[in-house]
Design brief:
This protein has about 170 residues and is an alpha/beta fold. The protein has six helices and six strands.
């Protein structure tokens, strides 16, 4: 099954991590590949204690408001190659590709490559794709699409990301 978590609201990654926690609790192995993101977020620290969950980052998190550099494209393609190997291995029941929709939007990777990845899925592997701006072809292939809508956000009042809540 293919799930997409998208929308302007806060909580797409958090929802995916909640599913990872549930899957690990059921004894499933989980792989999380984070695109674009780079940094020592609190979830990275927490997930080190769960031996069923592997998380890796394929980004630097430093170009969101400017053009990506060649290094960003190389890192995203490495993440896609790793995801391909993870899916082909059959070792993981849940694979989460966090912010892959944004990586597509920014043309760090191609929609054709992601669609090819979807074709590799085995029937017992759940795949979650997160991030704003999902490509229409991805939405068409998804079995579940959840949109997280922003009604109000404290960022608008100047409140910065808080440790343990956003980072």
């Amino acid at each position: 099954m293919i799930q997409v978590y998208t929308g302007n609201g806060k909580g797409k990654t958090t929802a995916a991590l909640g599913l990872a926690l549930r899957a690990a609790g059921a004894g499933f192995k989980v792989y999380i590949g984070q695109f674009i993101k780079g940094g020592n977020y609190s979830e990275l620290k927490a997930l080190k204690y769960l031996n069923k969950i592997t998380i890796e980052q394929y980004g630097r998190g430093c170009f969101i408001n400017k053009e990506p550099a060649l290094k960003d494209i190389i890192m995203a393609k490495a993440g896609l190659n790793k995801a391909r190997a993870v899916i082909k291995s059959g070792k993981y029941r849940l694979v989460i590709l966090d912010e892959i929709n944004v990586a597509l939007k920014l043309k760090l990777i191609s929609v054709e490559d992601v669609l090819e990845l979807l074709n590799l899925l085995k029937s017992d592997t759940e795949l979650v794709l997160t991030g704003r701006y999902p490509h229409p072809k991805i939405l068409k292939r998804a079995d579940l699409v959840s949109e997280i809508k922003e009604i109000r956000h404290y960022y608008a009042r100047g409140i910065k990301a808080r440790k343990g809540i956003e980072c």
